[in-house]
Specification:
heterodimer, A: 55 residues, mainly alpha, 2 helices, B: 228 residues, 6 helices, 72% helix
């Protein structure tokens, strides 16, 4: 029983880590690398300051 | 666990993003605006009149509210992305018995995040002021991503590896992108003054270093406090 609970907990841990990673990468991609012109203009100064290769 | 990851990630991203944005508008945006004046031709350096000098301009960075609000929003989004990856890293480290992460260790994570995400790519691709040029965009993006990934992997190998061999592999991973070399320009073409461009580069790195340490510190603090 304990083992089952422990492994269920480990699975939610892995899910949580995967979720945070995917969300984090998504935000960075949207802000830093999206070629959509609206995103580029909004994020322009941020991209320069964070040294993302921008244009 | 998921809740803890999200709260510490979002909170640290918001706080560090706000601080980074404030520093950016105060210290970096005036240089960006000056660079744009040279990029657009509103100001000329080494102009056709033959004068090697151009006047220093001091643009008013706070005037354009929309532009600054965009910058604040996108800086928060960017740093929240960094923060979520960092707390995911905290969770992985603790799962492998390399915790517990607290504010002090978080600050070290932050400093190393700065090294991996800003300092290492800047070694090959300097922060670019508008009005200076870089190599082809796609090639730079690929090199940037490869360098950040290799540096992170190298830092993990050095920080968490247990043998001299893993440290050596880590060092090699960090060095490799620079031995391969970043996509380079073959002509100098920048229309902005070198003094302005250099100041922009050093300020970008300084603001980023501070923002990353704050990010790690807050992420570590909230992470530690929300320990069940």
């Amino acid at each position: 029983m304990t083992k089952v609970i422990a492994s269920a907990r480990a699975n939610t841990d892995v899910l949580g880590i995967a979720f945070a990673t995917v969300l984090g990468l998504g935000l960075i991609f949207a802000a830093g690398f999206s070629h959509a012109s609206g995103m580029h203009d909004m994020a322009h100064d941020t991209r320069h300051a964070v040294s993302f290769p921008c244009h | 666990m998921s809740r803890k990851l999200l709260t510490s990630g979002l909170f640290a991203g918001l706080a560090a993003g706000l601080i980074a944005a404030l520093l950016q508008v105060t210290f970096i945006t005036p240089l960006l605006l000056a660079g744009e004046a040279f990029e657009s031709g509103a100001q000329l350096h080494f102009s056709t009149t033959g004068s090697p000098q151009s006047e220093v301009i001091h643009p008013e960075a706070w005037a354009d509210v929309t532009r600054n609000l965009n910058t604040v929003a996108m800086t928060i989004v960017t740093y929240t992305g960094f923060a979520l990856l960092m707390v995911a890293g905290f969770a992985v480290a603790e799962r492998f018995g390399r915790g517990p992460v607290d504010a002090r260790r978080g600050a070290i994570w932050g400093l190393l995040g700065f090294v991996a995400v800003q300092l290492a790519p800047s070694f090959g691709l300097p922060p670019e002021l508008p009005g200076t040029i870089g190599a082809e965009l796609a090639a730079r993006q690929v090199w940037w991503l490869g360098t950040v990934s290799a540096t992170l992997a190298g830092l993990v190998a050095i920080g968490f590896g247990r043998t001299a061999m893993s440290a050596a592999v880590g060092g090699l991973l960090i060095a490799a992108p620079h031995l391969i070399g970043a996509p380079a320009i073959d002509t100098y073409f920048g229309v902005a003054p070198p003094e302005l461009s250099a100041h922009f580069a050093t300020r970008s790195l300084g603001v980023a270093a501070l923002s990353w340490v704050v990010l790690g510190l807050i992420a570590g603090l909230v992470w530690d406090r929300s320990r069940a």
